[in-house]
Amino acid sequence: MKNLIFGLAASLALTCAAAPRWSVEKAKAWGAANPWWCGVNYIPANAINYTAMWDKTSFSPDVIRKELKLMTGIGMNCVRFVMQYKVYEDDPAYFIKTLDTFLALCDEAKVKAMPIFFDDCAFGANTDPVIGRQPEPLEGWYAWAWSPSPGHTMVIDEREHPKLEKYVKEVIMRFKDDKRIFLWDLYNEPANGRLGRRAFPLLRKTFAWAREVDPSQPLSSGIWNGNKELDAILLDNSDIVTFHCYADEKKTAAQIKELVARAGGRPVICTEWMNRTRKSTVAGCLKLFADAGVGCLAWGLVNGKTQTHLRWGHRPENLPYTGPWQHDFYRGDFTPYDPVEIDLYKATIQRVQRGAK
Questions:
Q1: Which residue, of 35, 46, 111, 179, has the fewest CB within 10 Å?
Q2: How is 175-225 classified by DSSP, letter by letter?
Q3: For the segment 80-119, what is each residue's pLDDT rounded down to a tens digit?
Q4: Fold classified for 23-356
Q5: Pairing of strands 219-220, 241-244
Q6: What is the pTM of this model?
Q7: Which residue blocks in the chain are alpha helix, DSSP H?
Q8: Could you tell me the residue ranges of all domains in the chain?
Q9: pLDDT at residue 124 above 90?
């Protein structure tokens, strides 16, 4: 009877009118009540893609626990990560339990979570994920086996979207008031991977589905490629303005200034940055984010199977790679790639914290 009552309540909640986008005043209040968000886009070093991070064959809480402790030592306070629809589709109860386990590990490390439902990025030959044991790395190929979520076929085929609606609503309903989650990032880089405007229907629907659940956490999807039509959808629907920036110091400063102005008082977070090969560096850009009060999440923590120390588009025929690491802060043995960067992070975070007191 208890489960029946809960199910009826959940059903009623999902069929009521969608909540509106947060007002500027509500978004400002959220920003004032929260810290300066500073962290990483996280994937375990032993996962070649986000399917492997969540799959029954390879979910690794012990690895995750050890890696997240590195962030505690720096003072970082948040992680962003992609959830994999196909793992949910295979076993919804397992996926939700596993997500809860991951959030508990985040809480243990004193970092808040920013889950992502969908991701259109693809760096290898495959654009549709498959559950189970994932391929091993192909040495020298950047993000060889990266797996989008839910996969490009489901993004394009709107007949499949009711399945995705169930996923979005069930996950948000379960965690809609969970303090371990500070923001829902609904869709990473929509229209990437040659999808273009074919991703727009799912993007719009995902915002609508999330609004129907009306979580206590804000909703967002980040500006990333300068497409005016896409930017308008993202800005018009996001409670908190988020964006990606892999540019040098001068261009990063200009983008921060532009988006703070366009946000109209809403908090702003850069949810992807740091590309050493493009001069998006800790030494050049971290202070810009801190001084502007703009949150920032660099790409990568511990270098591993994704091989994201390589440049975008790097292929085996170009080995050996002798350039600077593109992403990631730590080697597999947990020694820093550049200890100076770690010290800069610690000093910057401490400076911001002192200023907030």
A1: 179
A2: HTT-TTB--EEEEESTTTTTTGGGGHHHHHHHHHHHHHH--SS-EE--B-S
A3: 999 999 999 999 999 999 999 999 999 999 999 999 999 9
A4: TIM Barrel (3.20.20)
A5: unpaired
A6: 0.94
A7: 2-15, 24-33, 50-54, 61-74, 85-90, 92-108, 152-156, 161-175, 200-213, 228-237, 249-263, 282-292, 339-356
A8: 23-356
A9: no
